[in-house]
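Try it yourself: sequence plus pyridoxal-5'-phosphate, in.
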Amino acid sequence: MAIDKGKFSDVTAVAEALRPSYPVYCMRPDVLAASARRFISQFPGTVLYAVKCNPHPLVLSALYKGGIRHFDTASLPEIAQITDGFEDAHTYFMHPVKARAVIKSAYKVYGVRHFVVDHRDELDKVAEEAGTQGNTIIVRVNTPPADDTLYHLAAKFGAAPDDAAELMRAAAARGCAVGLAFHVGSQCRSPEAYSNALALLGGIIDQAGVDPVCIDVGGGFPAAYGDRPVPELGAYMEAIRRGLKSLKLKPTVDVFAEPGRALVAHGCSLLTQVQLRKDNRLYINDGIYGSLSEMATVAIRLPARVIRLDGPVSETMAEFALNGPTCDSLDVLPGTFALPDDVREGDWIEIDQVGAYSNALATRFNGFHPETFVQVFDAPPAVAAA
Ligand SMILES: Cc1ncc(COP(=O)(O)O)c(C=O)c1O
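Structure, out:
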């Protein structure tokens, strides 16, 4: 259950009004909408937001306001949320493994017409449950792992190139329109990963002898977390344009991207509170089983700053370990955070850039579940500090 605590000018005003002892997501709808507009203006095709990254209703409506009308959905609840929430939205079923009943409902109840497959049996399932006429089968290809990504999303899904060509032919023979998709991996720092993957797709298209109706370059576009620089979005678009050009596609071919992280990471920060200080260890009220699991699983580093209402903080900085609220000893954020050396119980710590894979991954372990959110209209701390 999401708890809406309203709108505030900035995060200090949130601390003043709520004095929260629970973690609060500080959503920045203007930042999210601007991020959607920026991506849409640069991408040479249709932008599908990957709902899994952050399905919070406020995030979805801000992206919608920024112009997003197409959504990469991976489950029936995601499809229902988008279809029920936005009359003119289009959903695409981008999960390569789907239950039969789910395929049927997506097609019949929600009007989904794009289905990803990466195996012959899944193609058969989609054909049996949703039919073939008017449907587009998008074959997910297993592209080689790109250097410099946080997650390799080809480890679990994706057909090998020969199998992908075979799947394209099989889908076309059944009367479906056919497309190709890949995912270079999340937080991909190498624009060339996209042109390389598109070159691989060129070979598959030639081998299959089937004209695709769409090419989907997936997600993976990085967020500028600040621990390591990432190339500008323009460099990715340039690599994609180059890769698409080499495919010599018909002008009618739709080009899709499915960004998640790059659209939302910097549109939300997290207001946590210090519950106890033990020397240079701080115990805060959110952690790896809540909003911050990616800090442990893929070692992203997030910026943090202290908010104190009853006086100034020290200008001398020290390194602190941050412990999460659960009783599990694993619930400690990796590394240390530079914070004022007099940080103490009751201070708030705003952790920035938590818009991606935060609330979406949070558990209820130990009874801790971050669910309170507010809207704020200040510049995100990472931007303000730059
Ligand atoms: C099929 C698919 N598309 C898009 C995304 C979004 O990826 P990212 O957040 O790296 O842009 C994911 C992430 O898991 C995915 O599995």
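One thing you can check immediately is this: Residues 291 and 358 are 4 Å apart (CA to CA).
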